[in-house]
Task: inverse folding
């Protein structure tokens, strides 16, 4: 096991990793930018070190700053959290070149799974049903039009690098394709420095289901079931739950088993998440893999009782998994609500400011992962996630009831949040019946969604 | 939704907050810059102004020359192993309250107050004095190596290199922030430093700020 870990992230995930370090008996050093000087992880860490100004490109995204911080504080491993440098294979390589361990897949594994389009073909070859798509990267407009014709409209134009919906467009006709492809190229180029694009078949009313896997260095792998992340806004998840209401128990088990078999065969290592689109008939198509801890990992922790961050650290330290599939049991139902500093009544406009009062809900089956405290100033420079409220109960209905009670109790004063959208979701018929699709919130709009819930 | 206690409080709180924010914004835009300028030209340690429900107190960090914060000592404890040095500004409750008012203000003015405060690293300080005028700070996380011009008493021009901070073996210049005379060096050669850490004091030539 490691002696001292550098946490190269901020906010709730920095705190989550710090907690995992504490339970493992590993010291933790937290990096921070000047804008995060007063943050909770900085205050609670064994040591904290300022790595740069508020601008993330010169702090949390600066590989030299992060690695230098690890070296001068005597760390032997770097935990990148999610976002920032977490899936950057070059960063992982430089970390290793300085005789530190990157907590995540080794650089060569990250490299193998770096291209989304390549990963789709790789895992397809190992038996995963993949979404129909273009044969390789789009060479030019002519190639794009021919491939779209072959796949059949609507299609989704996707950049090979990056994520978060940038450089992504859904098109229904060849004319739309021709104009959108230029925009996607320039967006992808400026966001990820790579303008290679590919096409995927677009499913209109799809659901987003993902499978959590863990594979050790010795090729032993398990799955930890799935999470349903169909409640989204512009490709950003806002509520996740498990088990998914979209699939039967048999279909869920079969999807998870197929997923873990494919990644083990393809040589994956560490924890990871395989994302699938599920159509109206319950057919699942693999779209991409996330080689890191995910925001919504607590949903799986609540069902399995496994500390995923601690497991991730142990695998990176070279420890055997120590778990067989039969050791993993799934208990009850969990829902996670992402609490964001954004205003659902005004097109989810992001906010900042001082948290004047903060109260985290409690009680059986209620967990709050958040870096908030009264008096904390939410800086405007980073993503808007303030924390995650996770509820667990033996059944979905009971979990929804606990969710309502906990959301009622949750108090964040001084900063506009999306708490109301979660309260509205728990009154929404499509959600209550387990029929949520990824486009529902966007189709209705945040303000209209709130109004509909208020009218009930 | 039932009209529960916290629910009512939320609405009342929102109204109060709005009034507060308007007040803070006005203070930040009109009063604070004038007060800071005033304090900067004097040898006063503290200035307080009352107006309505609000009072603003500006105070220099105790025991330091104008333009120098408590950060040097703060960092010194932080670079040693152990559990010290994480609570910024926790020591002074009076300062906390003043800082809170400042924090709210910077949230409202979105950038002006907040940006200058954070880029100068004065975030939680009592006095938002521009310390870069008299302290050379670290440009990066790394190992500090003072140069030949870092010797006390050396006359330097703004931009002169006083030494380097080595980041993974790549030296980054520590430039003199102002024209002046090199004073004490606050960090020993070969020590690890963090971004923005105070490194070398520069005594200004002007009579108001020079103090040796």
Result:
């Amino acid at each position: 096991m490691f002696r001292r870990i550098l946490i190269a992230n901020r906010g709730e995930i920095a705190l989550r990793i710090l907690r995992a370090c504490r339970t493992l008996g590993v010291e933790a050093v937290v990096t921070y930018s000047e804008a995060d000087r007063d943050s909770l992880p900085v205050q609670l860490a064994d040591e904290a070190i300022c790595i740069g100004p508020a601008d993330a490109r010169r702090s949390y995204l600066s590989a030299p700053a992060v690695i230098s911080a690890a070296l001068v504080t005597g760390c032997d491993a770097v935990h990148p959290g999610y976002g920032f440098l977490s899936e950057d294979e070059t960063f992982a390589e430089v970390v290793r070149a300085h005789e530190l361990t990157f907590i995540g897949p080794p650089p060569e594994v990250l490299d193998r799974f770096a291209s989304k389009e390549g990963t789709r073909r790789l895992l397809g070859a190992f038996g995963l049903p993949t979404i129909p798509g273009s044969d390789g990267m789009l060479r030019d407009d002519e190639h794009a039009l021919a491939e779209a014709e072959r796949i059949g409209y609507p299609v989704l134009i996707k950049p090979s690098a990056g994520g978060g919906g940038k450089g992504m467009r859904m098109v229904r006709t060849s004319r739309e394709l021709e104009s959108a492809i230029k925009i996607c190229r320039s967006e992808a180029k400026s966001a990820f420095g790579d303008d290679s694009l590919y096409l995927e078949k677009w499913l209109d009313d799809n659901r987003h289901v993902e499978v959590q896997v863990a594979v050790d260095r010795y090729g032993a792998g398990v799955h930890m079931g799935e999470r349903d992340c169909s409640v989204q806004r512009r490709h950003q998840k806002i509520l996740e739950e498990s088990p998914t209401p979209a699939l039967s128990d048999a279909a869920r088990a079969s999807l998870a088993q197929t997923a873990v078999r494919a990644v083990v065969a393809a040589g994956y290592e560490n924890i990871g998440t395989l994302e699938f689109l599920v159509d109206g008939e319950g057919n699942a198509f693999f779209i991409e893999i996330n080689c890191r801890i995910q925001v919504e990992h607590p949903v799986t922790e609540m069902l399995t009782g496994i500390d995923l961050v601690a497991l991730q650290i142990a695998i990176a330290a070279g420890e055997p998994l120590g778990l067989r599939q039969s050791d993993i049991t799934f208990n009850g139902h969990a829902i996670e609500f992402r609490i964001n500093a954004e205003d659902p009544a005004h097109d989810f406009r992001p906010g900042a400011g001082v948290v004047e009062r903060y109260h985290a809900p409690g009680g059986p089956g209620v967990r709050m992962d958040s870096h908030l405290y009264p008096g904390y100033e939410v800086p405007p420079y980073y993503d808007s996630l303030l924390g995650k409220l996770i509820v667990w109960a033996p059944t979905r209905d009971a979990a929804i009831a606990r969710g309502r009670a906990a959301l009622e109790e949750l108090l964040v004063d001084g900063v506009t949040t999306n708490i109301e959208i979660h309260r509205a979701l728990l009154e929404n018929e499509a959600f209550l019946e387990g029929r949520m699709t990824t486009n529902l919130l966007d189709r209705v709009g945040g303000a209209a969604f709130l109004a509909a819930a208020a009218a009930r | 939704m039932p009209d529960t206690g916290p629910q009512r409080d939320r609405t009342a709180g929102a109204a109060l907050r709005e009034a507060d924010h308007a007040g803070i914004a006005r203070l930040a835009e009109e009063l604070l810059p004038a007060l800071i300028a005033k304090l900067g030209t004097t040898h006063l340690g503290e200035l307080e102004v009352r107006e309505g429900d609000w009072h603003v107190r500006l105070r220099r960090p105790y025991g330091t020359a104008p333009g120098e914060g408590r950060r040097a000592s703060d960092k010194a404890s932080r670079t040693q192993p152990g559990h010290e040095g994480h609570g910024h500004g926790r020591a002074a409750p009076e300062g906390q309250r003043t800082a809170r008012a400042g924090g709210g203000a910077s949230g409202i003015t979105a950038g002006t107050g907040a940006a200058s405060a954070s880029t100068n690293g004065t975030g939680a300080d009592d006095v938002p004095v521009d310390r870069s005028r008299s302290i050379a700070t670290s440009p990066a996380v790394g190992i500090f190596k003072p140069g030949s011009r870092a010797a006390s008493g050396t006359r330097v021009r703004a931009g002169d290199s006083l030494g380097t901070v080595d980041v993974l073996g790549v030296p980054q210049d520590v430039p003199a922030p102002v024209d002046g005379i090199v004073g004490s060096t606050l960090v020993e050669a070969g020590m690890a430093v963090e971004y923005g850490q105070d490194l070398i004091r520069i005594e200004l030539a002007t009579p108001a700020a020079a103090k040796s």
About this structure: Chain A has a mean pLDDT of 95. Chain A has three domains: 4-103, 132-201, 207-455. Chain A is about 35% helix and 25% strand.
